[in-house]
């Protein structure tokens, strides 16, 4: 039974979230919707465990996540298929500059989870089947942003004694990121149409093009900056609307500090330069 939290609607539209969940439920993705009431809903119980921070570094599990995320991005969800991430930010001058930096590039747009931390991924230990849960922040966005956000979440351990503390030495290295992207792109072709990308099945076993791997990795690294801004601002706002015992301001400070630290480096280099 899920009871909706108070104050969190400042981050997303509850009716949009409910429609997303109902659509996911009807099409067999995520838990089934069993019932609704004014302040919440009843969902199907999933016989699986939630991932831990350590699980994200397991190569086998990481590969399964990449495949599942690719499937998620391919979902044909209702609503306008336009990027929403910039609308959700409010540092106007900095956001406009960053959006302009990315606007000239061909981008694959997909239905993104936008909060793919380990607590929102469940795994069946026997079948290794993954289920992605909690769609409050889900919307159409560049797939590179969703993957970048997932990589950034590897710096967090929300079940430690200091859950707000981030360790960026745990951010995946080039080899880890490349394996993830290779798995993500395997068996799929990219079709660019007017700076949008539809992901369609290709011949089974086809290896992804090396240039596509490199381009997606470069875009992912750029979108880590957007991830830091999104969650930095989220932390600042959460300090005023959330009563959970979590140091939101310190979390926000770390995300924004990482943004300013990495921005010059990321915007001036490419993966193949590393």
TrEMBL record:
InterPro entries: Kinase-like_dom_sf. It comes from the Eukaryota. CDD domains: ETNK_euk. GO terms for biological process: phosphatidylethanolamine biosynthetic process. One of its GO terms (cellular component) is cytoplasm. GO terms for molecular function: choline kinase activity; ethanolamine kinase activity. SUPFAM superfamilies: Protein kinase-like (PK-like) (SSF56112). Pfam families: Choline_kinase (PF01633). Belongs to the choline/ethanolamine kinase family. This is Choline kinase. It comes from Triticum turgidum subsp. durum.
